[in-house]
Amino acid sequence: MSFAPSSTSKPRVGLFVTCLVDMFRPTVGFSAVKLLEEAGCVVDVPMEQVCCGQPAFNAGDLASARKVAKPLIAMFADHDYVVAPSGSCAGMMIKHFPELFANDPELAEPVKALAAKTWELVSFLTDVMKLDGVAAAFDGSITYHDSCSGLRELKVKEQPRKLLRSVKGLSINELQESETCCGFGGTFCVKYPEISGKMVGDKTTDIKNSGADMLLAGDMGCLMNMAGKLRREGSDIEVRHVAEVLADMTMAAPGIAGSEKG
Amino acid sequence: MNQSSSSSRNAILGRIRKNLGRDTSPQDAPAEVVARLGNPPRNITPARAQIPHDQQLDLFVKMAGDVNASVSRIENSEAIVGEVSRYLAEHNQPAVVRLAPDSFITGLDWDKTTLEISSGVAGPLDLVSVTPAFAGVAETGSLMLRSGPDQPYTLNMLPDTHIVVIRASQIVGTYEEVWGLQRQSQGRGTMPRTFLWVTGPSRTGDIEQTLQLGAHGPRRLHIILVDDTGETPVAQPD
Amino acid sequence: MEHSTSPNFKQNAHDALNDASLQRALGRLKTGFKDKRTAAIAQLPEFEQLRDAARDIKNHTLANLDHYLTAFEANVIANGGHVHWCADAEEARQTVLKICQDKEAKSVLKGKSMISEEIGLNAFLEKQDLKVVETDLGEYIIQLRNEPPSHIIAPAIHVHKEQVADSFRETHKGRDINRPLDEPRDLLDEAREVMREHFFAADIGITGANFLIAETGTSVIVTNEGNGDLTQTLSKVHIAIASLEKVVPTLEDASTILRVLARSATGQEMSSYTTFSTGPRRGEDLDGPEEYHVILLDNGRSNMLGTEFQEMLRCIRCAACMNHCPVYGAVGGHAYGWVYPGPMGSVLTPSLIGVDEAGHLPNASTFCGKCEEVCPMRIPLPKMMRHWREREFEKHLGPQSMRFGIQAWAWMASRPKLYQLTTGFAAKVLKSMGGRKRAIHKLPLARGWTDIRDLPAPQGKTFKQLWAEQQAAKKA
């Protein structure tokens, strides 16, 4: 493992937990903390944080989005970096906050600064902390879904694969159509359930065809969608956030949603 | 222009100006518009075609082949009529040929062959045409064909088999070079009624995305590429 | 097309998802165009630079649209053609009709034109007792089936060859009823033969235009079949129908954009025929149309200038966005309910027929961003769909429940303590509902979710609860 050589003092990282990790899967949050600390960061979790405002932003309700998002700007003002275990939420802060607050000249600079220091977890570990590998072991095969926001807004593609290749005992079965959307899309999946159902059904077919024991991705929304569909179809392929495997925390909790086997 | 079109013209232009944040009355074109129209920039041109001429010829042949055209390279223009006969026999096509009324094409020694020839526009019964080209573009193996008194447009589209004669010296790298030649040949801003780029024979994928050649235009496109480096140049072909 | 079924998008999508034949046809889209595009782009290292250049050309043109349109007009007239400015669909239809009547035309041949679909030209002309024949094979097939196109470059992509054979047997009378029409080749040969008769009998030939070139007064069509060329050459009158934003400054500018068009559309390096038409036949010409008319249609586009939707006017109708869209791939083109499907339609349709009518379309997207990734003109399609959602929200369109839900959520999410309490409680309840399987099969208030898939149960406590406990334990 190598560390960022530039600074002698440890970078102070504000963890943006994300609302789905907070409520549904704390293990991902702890995995992120472990990975960041092992990479040489000091991790801080501002306790007033809630959500990046994306659900309202994507629903066209800009006022609500600003109301929810605005406190984060001050909350993370003093951190060297802000890291989220989600390409979608990080993408919101990096790519969309500047647009969301474009009409507020006082916020222009702070929002720009926030966007500049915010990272998706895995790309932060590899691209900023220059991590080449992790000290984790997993005996089995995984397949990886490239979640859309991370992939297209933040160019997260090779980074998770690079770290996964360093996990002892792990093999990667590449997923057909790994870059095709799983059909989650925030409120899309409940507004247009039938279309979403077709999309996630195509996705679970590819997942099963990969022959992997476990499905990984970097965003809880997609993971819950795919895990929920796999369970509905009776599949017992384990589903986890990539951070859990990289942090060697697969023993800390069972995978997302159980199977018939329990 | 009728009256309604004239009032719509003013309304549309007025809306465009207003929505672009300008005064709604007509204004002179800004300098950059005048400059662009007067001296068109070449933008980005692919490096693949910016190579020595002999390699451009090879590229042209390869690219044309990739889009299902066939190309025969021959030594001199005397061999053209023989190549037409050979191609038609090989593909079991009728020995009846409609020529473009272009002096270079009609002036070839057709009597050397048993082909039945005539020249003029193509009609429903013409199955084979032979036409000249204005230029060829190596970048994509495309032929540049201009309509005119010497080259009726229907010859390019109606016959089952379209044979195009082009000389090596007419092959250039990119489309932009062709526009330069066109301006030299007919003057800036002037175009023939039809300027056609042909890249392979007619095709369709409209039935179950299955590629079929010969949709409504020619089923076969054969290019006779004449190596004219040793020949006396003739008048600007077309 | 005058009437849309876009308000019924959900029902349309339901029907499409349950249409086995359509689903089989859409399966072909999963590879086809997409793989060919990928291969073609790999052959051209300058592709990304060309996209930038293409975007810049269109941006420059749109910023000077009045100047380029008037230059185009002047050059058409100088070459002996006519330009008709039409504010809306009705004016365009009437203008075409007037030209047909002036020539005492009986038959009209059509090359493929999406603008003609937009203005509902065929139905209108047929009502005036004109015989209208679509000459593009795909358009011809859907004309026989009395359907709108389901894709902007492959209009009959939803049709199987057996269905084409049925249409041909029904329409092409006087042929052996038992003739073989099993293979695409049989069908194509018959269509070619039938269409030849039409080509030689046509009075008026109507085509669309991929570009209008200001420098020379030229209209350009890009085709593979050659039908457009025959349509516009064998008819006495050639009418090119184009919307305003098709204009580009120069021959070179058109060439730059042509380099990204076919590659993005069908994965070809260049389409078979790229045809630059300027004016009617010249004095000495032996063939070609005697008259050349350009219909310049606005139909709402000038009012997109200066708005957040201006960039949509860069669209060159290559269809890469729909070829790659997972929503289009699931439901096909007809579900969108109007002329333009897929991501480009989800942005353009509300501009043209109103967001109150087409409001579903910009909502039916996961914002996966694939469309923007492949758009040769770098149009930020998801962003513009979001802008439509903003307009809908401002206008109180869309379901009240969704609006209320988002606002209630935002109210709570801006109160961290209350939010923590609520999510902490919910996490606990949902965990117990999930039981040993850690998944919830049915949740009355979240049926949109649980109708399709289980809801993974939370782990029980929230991260922040656990983090606070851990920090307290460390201090103790």
How many β strands of chain B by DSSP?
12
Number of helices of chain A: 13
Q: Any idea what the shape of chain A is?
A: globular
* Quaternary: heterotrimer
Q: Radius of gyration of chain A in whole Å, from Cα?
A: 18 Å
What is the mean predicted local confidence, pLDDT of chain B?
94
CATH class of the largest domain in chain B: Alpha Beta
Number of domains of chain A: 2
The average pLDDT score of chain A comes to 95
Quickly describe the structure.
The complex is a heterotrimer of chains A (262), B (238) and C (476). Chain A is α/β, with parallel strands linked by helices and 262 residues long.
Question: What does this entry look like structurally?
Answer:
The complex is a heterotrimer of chains A (262), B (238) and C (476). In chain A, 49% of the residues lie in helices and 13% in strands. Chain A has 13 helices and 8 strands. Chain A is globular, with a radius of gyration of 18 Å. Chain B has 238 residues and is of the alpha/beta class. The C terminus of chain B is likely disordered. Chain C is of the alpha/beta class and 476 residues long. Chain C contains 24 helices and 12 strands. Chains in contact: A-C, B-C. At the B-C interface, helix 1, helix 2, helix 6, helix 7 and strand 9 of B face helix 2, helix 4, helix 5, strand 1 and helix 6 of C.
Provide the descriptors you would attach to this structure in a database record.
heterotrimer, A: 262 residues, alpha/beta, Rossmann fold, 2 domains, four-stranded parallel β-sheet, 8 strands, globular, disordered N terminus, B: 238 residues, six-stranded parallel β-sheet, four-stranded mixed β-sheet, 12 strands, 29% helix, disordered C terminus
Helices and strands, with pairings:
The complex is a heterotrimer of chains A (262), B (238) and C (476).
Chain A: E1 12-15, H1 19-24, H2 26-38, E2 42-44, H3 54-58, H4 62-75, E3 81-84, H5 87-100, H6 105-117, E4 118-120, H7 121-128, E5 137-144, H8 148-154, H9 158-165, E6 168-172, H10 188-191, H11 193-210, E7 214-217, H12 220-232, E8 238-241, H13 242-246
Parallel strand pairs in A: 1-2, 1-3, 3-4, 5-6, 5-7, 7-8
Chain B: H1 3-19, H2 31-38, H3 53-66, E1 70-74, H4 80-90, E2 96-99, H5 103-106, E3 116-119, E4 128-132, E5 135-137, E6 142-146, H6 154-157, E7 161-167, E8 171-172, H7 175-186, E9 194-198, E10 203-204, E11 212-213, E12 220-226
Chain C: H1 9-17, H2 20-29, H3 32-42, H4 47-63, H5 65-78, E1 82-86, H6 89-102, E2 107-110, H7 114-118, H8 121-127, E3 131-134, H9 137-144, H10 161-171, H11 184-201, E4 204-207, E5 211-213, E6 218-223, H12 227-234, E7 237-243, E8 247-248, H13 251-265, E9 273-277, E10 291-297, H14 320-324, H15 326-331, H16 342-353, H17 355-358, H18 360-363, H19 370-374, H20 381-394, H21 400-413, H22 416-434, E11 439-440, H23 447-450, E12 455-456, H24 463-475
Parallel strand pairs in C: 1-10, 2-3, 2-4, 4-7, 5-8, 7-10
Antiparallel strand pairs in C: 5-6, 6-9, 11-12
Helix pairs in contact in C: 4-13, 10-11, 16-20
